[in-house]
Amino acid sequence: MANEPLQEQLSLLYQLQERDLKLLSTHQKLQEIPRNIEQLEAGVVQYEEDMTAKSAELAETEKEQRSKNAEIEMNTVQREKYQDEQRTVKTNEAYDALERQIEFLDKEDEEAEDTILVLMEKSDQLKEELAALEVEVNREKEKTATETAQLRQELQNLEADRNEELKMRKAFLSDIEKGLRDEYHRWMKAQFENQSGAARSKTGFVALSKNGICTSCRIAIQPQTLKEAQKYQKQVYCSSCKRLLYVEPATPDVPFP
Ligand SMILES: [Zn+2]
Q1: How far away, in angstroms, is 210 Cα from ligand 1 center?
Q2: What is the pLDDT of residue 250?
Q3: Which residues face 5 on adjacent strands?
Q4: 248 DSSP 8-state letter
Q5: What are the helix (H) ranges across 174-222?
Q6: What does DSSP say about strands 206-210 and 244-247: parallel, antiparallel, or unpaired?
Q7: Cβ atoms 156, 34 nearer than 8 A
Q8: Domain ranges across the chain
Q9: Which end of the chain offers a freer environment for a tag, N or C, measured as fewer CB atoms within 10 Å?
């Protein structure tokens, strides 16, 4: 004859396990969301860094332009000086020497003007890129603000859900025999103490058995063990995965799981 208390206890323990698995997934989401928020915000920082780098490049280009203009101004002063000297020199050689200096200054100016043209084109290009980048940064900032606000809201809702679930769990727990729930907690705790176990805990301590198969490890339960388990007189464990078996009752009118 079926021992109803044990069958009911297995059913309760299985329900507790379902609650805990849901809690576990909530807990994981609660850990993931802040990481997602961080990633989104890091994306904006990257954009801002790109903008800072481009602004610096523009400033450097403009500085080079100013320095080339200063060179030309200095050459103008120097040229006037040579021209003044040309008016007072006594020999043709001295005059020609000054002329060559002036020609050198002219050549330098020509090169500086070419460079300035290139720099001006570069500045214009950078200003255009900077303006486009600014639009992009602002769009990204807006998008990130919306997305992170949604994530923060989700976080809040999940926290509220979790707290509610924990409260309900506590009330539910007292219906389960202490020995059984201690065994369950010990098993769960042991799984979490090692990395591979954390993954194993996702399938739980209580293994359902349908059609003579352990649903946790997919191994067929020996007929003798199955018969034993269906009496619900003592706890029966899967010989393969060592989980506590909660077997489908032999009589179909009993609700399962
Ligand atoms: Zn098993």
Answers
A1: 11
A2: 85
A3: none
A4: P
A5: 178-192, 195-200
A6: parallel
A7: no
A8: 19-173, 178-247
A9: N
Task: Report whether pLDDT(1) > 50.
Answer: no
The amino acid sitting at 207 is: A
Q: What is the CATH number of domain 19-173?
A: 1.10.287.1490
Q: Sheet of 206-210: strands edge to edge?
A: 213-214, 206-210, 244-247
Note the pLDDT tens digit of each residue in 141-182: 999 999 999 999 999 999 999 999 999 999 999 999 999 999
What is the C-alpha separation between 96 and 76, in angstroms, rounded?
A: 19
* Helices (runs of H) and strands (runs of E) counted in the chain: 5, 3
- Return d(Cα 178, Cα 191) in angstroms, integer: 20
Mean pLDDT (whole number) for 193-218: 82
Rounded to whole angstroms, how far apart are CA atoms 142 and 121? Answer: 32
CA 209 – ligand 1 centroid, Å: 9
Cα 57 from Cα 126, distance rounded (Å): 8
**How far, in Å, from the CA of 205 to the mean position of ligand 1?**
10
Q: Could you tell me the pLDDT band of residue 253, with boundaries at 50, 70 and 90?
A: confident
